[in-house]
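A note from the maintainers: we've had questions about how concatenated examples are separated. There is no special marker in the raw files; a new sequence line simply starts the next protein. For clarity in this README we add a label.
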Amino acid sequence: MGYRVGLDFGTSATKVVLCSDAASFDYAMETPSELQVEEEGRRQDHLWRTCVWFNDETQCFQLTPCASSRPVLGFKTGLIRGEGHRMLASGISHNVAAAAYLALLVAYIVGSDAERVERAGGVARPYSRFHIGVPVASLEEDPRVAGFHRVVQAAFILAPRAAALHLSDVREVMQREIGSTATEADTPYQLFEELAGVVAGYMMTPEKAGGPHIIVDVGAATLDVATFYIPDGDYALEVYESGVELLGAQSLQCALAASVPEATFRGACQAHTHGVLSKTFNTKNYSFLPGPNFPSKPMIYVGGGRMTALHRSTYDRYSKAYLAPMRSPGVGRWLERSLATDQERLLLAWGLAQDPGTGAIPRIRPPSQVIFEPPPERDWQRNYIDKSNC
């Protein structure tokens, strides 16, 4: 009966929400000031920099900087691309950096919550499980999921060594074979599709709706687009199509710095989005065609990079073309958090922190298992006049 941790492991920012059956314990974990993401000249209280520090003198990883440490960044991108084995820095691969970061973060979360409860005069409580989002359409079908399991399993093995997390220890653990990935009673973590976490959060908001939807998640590095159907009752959420490309907010900044025309970058976003949408209406559900003859489809527009002028204007057009009202839902009022943080950025972590045993986090039916719904047959001859009646 411990608490659940919703962990939104982002490319540039990580968000953490803790929930339990007692609503008074639902809160977004505050980030120490030196670890907070700074955006638009202000610090975001609940956004952790996805960064681990490496001390060259001790050869140890740290969650906070010191005079002899250097930052290691960008390791989540390697996992997304399925290239976790590649070197990110001297002697440090994407996998190693990610495992070290998550190990230190897990240790901090557990210790911080224990101190919080103690200050309130309560009895220390255990965690039930960490729920971690993975940017894939299906856990069963994507080969990158094994890489995420390897990293997360290593993180929980290494977390007890967080006080002195040596590079050699992380390398040694990362070389072990992946054990069972099945979720048992004492399994410390569970992976979920990020889409399932976003929908879990969305379905607890007043803006929730069933039926066909489009999601556009503009992250720091990535642009994730998916089409799906939210059913009534206890049925799996059908994912029609999904795709992720390195076209997020920071990718835009890098492109512009390299003199890539803004129109070219916008065209890449449009091509990526059209690819997902066209596959949907050609192979899964014809009603996703744009136009007034087809039902509207709410567009869930989320992510830390969603407010760039280029992304916003691009998806405003899609929203109008698809009669899809754009929605950026935030978290519930009962979640304890600082209002200084962009509330919409906490939606995924909040959704992941829910109890899957109650059906709050939907099950996913991947694209390969979704049967094509062909358009109804039309009688083209009925509009013509029979010459025998003339």
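[label: protein 2]
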Amino acid sequence: MLIFFDDDETGRKDAPVLRDELLRQGYPSTFDFPPPDENGKKMDANEILQFYGNQKLSELILNASKTLQNRLQYPSKPFTYTRKNIPDFAVNSISSANTININFQNESDFFLHDFQENIEHRKKFSSRKTGFSNIDNNQILLPGVYILGGLPSIGKTTFVWQLLKQCADNGEHCLFISYEMSLIQLRSKSLARQLWLRDPTSTLTATQISMGSFNNALLEIIAQHQNSTRDFRAVKFSNERLSEILPSLDAFCDSLDKPPIICIDYLQRIPFNERERRDGISNNFRLLKDFQFKTDSTVIALSSLNRDNYSAPISFESFKETGEIEYSADVMWGL
């Protein structure tokens, strides 16, 4: 047993006590504590994870394990395992209120009880239509995390805004989360497009509309939007971290009759602690993936590209400061 408690008063007091009890129970044991940061400040495992990321914590635990292996102390007497040799604290922890019940399902149970139910659940998404034939003809917009990358100003926001609007037209619950554009800019995009569809000779742009330039045709379109029945919502954030908004997103999903389609614009603009650097984006993405899996939603996150890839075909390496997203994203799109 390798004990790696916090380097505080409680950890210093309890680590040798636990080691001695484990030795009495017959388990080779030793202990150590997390090292301080570069300024000498003591850090616990959670702080290391927040400030330096998962990879740093994993390396720290691995290095500590190698060191502790050489310092293991062994019981003075041979130890024979029986059920009654299990320490009381282990039995108590197994039966505690914090323990979750896990169903380690075997193959026959899955195919007898869950296989068809899972198929029927996924079939519910087969009728989804994005309104873009090149997407609808080639894939189904299933629950998962989609990453859309492209050059600056190539139209990522406009494309996904239109995709969500068309999904909402087909009865989907849609939410657009903007860390960049204001809601008047986004809504004006819809008005400009509707105006162009009605009158291709119109010269009114989304920017002009957002500044108050109207005509009679546009006023009619605005009236139609005021009476819209589709569920197409949008929210603007600036400095809110993902961990701060996820509880509200959870509640939003729980209030719906089916999982929504959610877009976040864009991945690199979601705030994180500057000391996390590149790991901050990866940590945000893991939170996003956990949320998606929990809610069965479909999440589309926009991503910028590295400058070095501006003139090269899009690949996994093209996505700017995205760390480990290629391991967790379900689908990656290049625009």
